[in-house]
């Protein structure tokens, strides 16, 4: 097929997401061992822009990526990961080899610190790449459109999943679900009929450390392959997945926070009991978690915590508790606010198209 799109640029903004039920462990290529559900974030986003053009006929390289800049600087390590991603996509979309692509990315939050920066990046990149499929697949999209309005959202979610599993959930407004029953986990879907209290959910992310993680999530997934508790975790994850969906649709906060925290602590327990084991939580992470539990159990606030694969603590609460949670952080952890180490985020819309220019 002769693709008419000769050159252009596309920019997509996609959010990170915080998993309430965690995905841990892979099979085949980026397919999940257990189902997961996550909340889409508003402020924790990646903006990705691609400039692309057809290669000249004399070009002999099979590389797709010409250059990658993260916040204006080269990042050779991540550039290799992007090129590997493109090479994998070429198996299903061989036309990609006809292009050379520059990728420019920036985050509104620290990368590689446990706030799913790979999820937001690869969902945004997949959104950009989707425009190159079948002569500009989404030419009808207007800027600020959300991708979930499109008929091909399962295809785009699958594209993102092949770069980062969690990226498959980042397209969807409010909540995304990634079930092993969706074509064995090939793509994610949005979760509907959410209770109004969960639609206005708040998430204050305490940045305990912005340093790059000592052990990557990719390495952690690999260590899980022969884990002593592998099968038990898969069963727990599927059970919790169904329970969490019911909670989000009924507004059952009494059941929500214990399940939310069980999932977070299970994830880190699996890391600590891997062979070799490792710990990503820091002393301040533990202090924050204990204090949040005290707020709920002793003072009656509707508040709880979760963590991704990193030390940073996500403090979750309904909008009606915002004033009291802000007072807690200001009184007990003033340095976090003073040093701008808290991202006050919320449940919101998913990936959006920022700009596109396609020249045929």
How would you sum up this structure, described in words?
With 360 residues, this protein is of the alpha+beta class. It has two domains: 7-193 and 349-359, Ribosomal Protein S5, domain 2; 197-346, Alpha-Beta Plaits (2-Layer Sandwich), CATH 3.30.70. Helix content is 34%, strand content 24%. The protein has helices at residues 76-89, 117-130, 153-161, 196-199, 217-223, 230-250, 253-272, 283-299, 322-332, 334-338; strands spanning 7-21, 26-27, 31-32, 36-54, 65-70, 73-74, 99-107, 175-178, 189-190, 202-206, 304-306, 313-317, 342-346, 352-359. Strands 1, 4, 5, 6, 7, 8, 9 and 14 form an eight-stranded mixed beta sheet that branches. A four-stranded antiparallel beta sheet has the order 11-12-10-13. A two-stranded antiparallel ribbon has the order 2-3. Helix 6 runs antiparallel to helix 7 (253-272). The chain is globular, with a radius of gyration of 20 Å. The relative contact order is 0.20. The model has no long low-confidence stretch (mean pLDDT 91).
